[in-house]
Amino acid sequence: MSTTTPSSVLEAEHREIAAAFTAFVHRELVPLAAELPEDGGMPPAELRAYVRRRSAKLGFYSGDHPEELGGSGMPFSAVVMLHHAAGRSGCPLAPYALAGSDGPSPLLRQGTEQQIEQYLKPLVRGEATRCLALTEPNAGSDALHLTTTARRDADGGDWVLSGRKTFVSNAGHADFVIVVARAVDGDGKDGGPTAFVMGMDVPRLRIGQRYEGMSGEELYELVLDEVRLPAGAVIGGEAGVGAALGNGIDSLSRGRLVVAAMCNGIAEYALELGVAYARERKAFGERIGAYQHVQEHLVSSRAEVEAAKLLTLACARLVDDGVEAPENAALAKLTSSETAVRVVDRALQVHGATGWVRGHPLEFLYRYVRMMTIIEGTSEIQKVIVARAMGLG
Ligand SMILES: Cc1cc2nc3c(=O)[nH]c(=O)nc-3n(C[C@H](O)[C@H](O)[C@H](O)COP(=O)(O)OP(=O)(O)OC[C@H]3O[C@@H](n4cnc5c(N)ncnc54)[C@H](O)[C@@H]3O)c2cc1C
């Protein structure tokens, strides 16, 4: 494909840093990925830790965090381009080179000085990982319908957390966990959703069921059986009680744009595979790319990927300009994740049985990309956000 595409206009500003990241992926991560099992399960934890630390050393991991926290102070739009480049590389280790759902949580940016030192800085440096326990068996999309409670002792001191969390990524390897629970004060008054941070080794917190995802992801159930925490475990201290919703809005928007960018990169990679195959493979005496039904798969994909990419890059640029509207991120995440699912499906179709066989990159991507319309809020929930912003419902 031509390198002068409409999206290259928006890419120009951060092209060099994205090119440096891509060079790192090809130089250092692609050879390591060659050792991974062909069916594309999750890489071993030690390898993920190595990739994270190496990338942090080179200044890519946690790119948008300020230098005083150990980051590189990049604009958010540069970070979005790195996530695009990770998806585009086709290297299964590349996503672990960039901070994601196990990395520095924007919630911790609202933390007290002590929380920033103890939790945020090691995450930014890639030395520690965390998990976020928000979803519950009966509170998924409706995430604030929480039944996990944090009851405050009558003397206003310690908190006692009880409940079950489910589908928590990285809980089996994390150093600490952020738990969102409903605060209840001494006289039973509901103080609202509140984020707590604690080590994974805190007494009476245990891992329950383990779930394995379609492409080898490990998710876990977490059981909080009267976990006792000091007042200092509330993220942001006293001001953080009941503030998880307010503090979470911006972080969700950024997380959604990062997922959108990764999806666009994956879609571009899948499209490239589809185009290359259609140019080579012959059927009925012709290259299959000459057939209009095959062109339809590839040209529609090209149009949709370019549109999703432009939307995502534009929304990221707006974040750098101080505009962090949740509906923008919702539009980008909805468009990019749905596009990536379609494009991977079409690219596999163009490959026929070749793409369907275990070990082919498209076979893995077909399973991997499917989670993208569910994580960070389902497609339907992105539509709910946009509908509300349009004054509907
Ligand atoms: C790979 C992966 C990683 C995850 N990691 C984490 C994690 O680290 N921490 C964590 O806390 N959670 C995590 N989750 C859970 C994830 O956040 C939830 O799966 C997601 O919020 C959806 O909730 P649910 O699965 O309970 O679906 P439900 O909320 O039960 O939704 C079922 C269906 O109903 C639709 N629906 C629900 N409400 C509405 C509505 N108002 N309007 C229209 N449609 C609606 C949904 O879109 C969906 O199609 C992870 C999930 C996956 C797949």
TrEMBL record:
One of its GO terms (biological process) is fatty acid beta-oxidation using acyl-CoA dehydrogenase. GO terms for molecular function: acyl-CoA dehydrogenase activity; flavin adenine dinucleotide binding. Gene3D superfamilies: Acyl-CoA dehydrogenase/oxidase, N-terminal domain, Butyryl-CoA Dehydrogenase, subunit A, domain 2, Butyryl-CoA Dehydrogenase, subunit A, domain 3. The keyword Metal-binding does not apply. Residues 251-390 form the Acyl-CoA dehydrogenase/oxidase C-terminal domain. It comes from the Bacteria. Its cofactor is FAD. Residues 12-127 form the Acyl-CoA dehydrogenase/oxidase N-terminal domain. Residues 131-227 form the Acyl-CoA oxidase/dehydrogenase middle domain. GO terms for cellular component: cytoplasm. InterPro entries: Acyl-CoA_dehydrogenase (IPR050741), Acyl-CoA_Oxase/DH_mid-dom (IPR006091), Acyl-CoA_Oxase/DH_mid-dom_sf (IPR046373), AcylCo_DH-like_C (IPR036250), AcylCo_DH/oxidase_C (IPR009075), AcylCoA_DH/ox_N (IPR013786), AcylCoA_DH/ox_N_sf (IPR037069), AcylCoA_DH/oxidase_NM_dom_sf (IPR009100). Keywords: FAD, Flavoprotein, Oxidoreductase. Belongs to the acyl-CoA dehydrogenase family. This is Acyl-CoA dehydrogenase. It comes from Streptomyces klenkii.
